Predict the 3D structure of the following.
Amino acid sequence: MKRSSTIPFCSEQGGRAGSILLEVSVAAFVLAIAVAGSSQYLTTALNSSEKTQRITRAALMCESRIAEALAEKSSAVTSEEGVFETDRDWRWKQVVESGPFSSVGRVTVLVFFATDKKPVCSLTRLFPIAKEKSDSKAGNPR
């Protein structure tokens, strides 16, 4: 008759415990690499989202500034610079030039963030230049 040991399967458990530790270590390493890769993609996505939000805000500010400039009398549109009242971190520069025809002007608005040298957004619109009527033609009808 064979003699049984006091701890059954002792040698087999010791070998299996070592392989379980190796499997868990490899799984943890693979998980760490996956988390590191995912965090890089998440950071890139967040940076892209922030940049897109900044460009969208600048585009809305460009539209707003051009609307304000064109709401004034067309002949009074001039080149100017300023800061947005709603957000002091943003500044604008308005450039007025002659358009493709003598009766048309061109206004370009550039929007900058803080002290950046390069504009975040620029927008150009054409506008009609109002011709002043002469006093001889502007007589009152009788």
Observations:
- The longest strand covers residues 104-113.
- The beta strands are 80-83, 90-98, 104-113, 121-128.
- DSSP finds one helix and four strands in the chain.
